[in-house]
Amino acid sequence: MGNFDYKNWIVQVDLKDNLTDKQILDYLRRTNHRFTQKEYRLFLEQCKRPLYNSIAEKIILFFVTYDNGKLMPDRYNAFEPVNKVFSLDKIPNVIESLCWPRGCLYLKKLRKFEVSIENYEFAVVFSDGENIFPRKPSYPEYMTTIQIYFDKKRNKNPMVFIKLLHDLCGYLGTNRGFIKDQEDWIKDQGDWNIIYEVANV
Question: Which segments in the chain show pLDDT lower than 50?
Answer without folding.
Answer: 1, 201
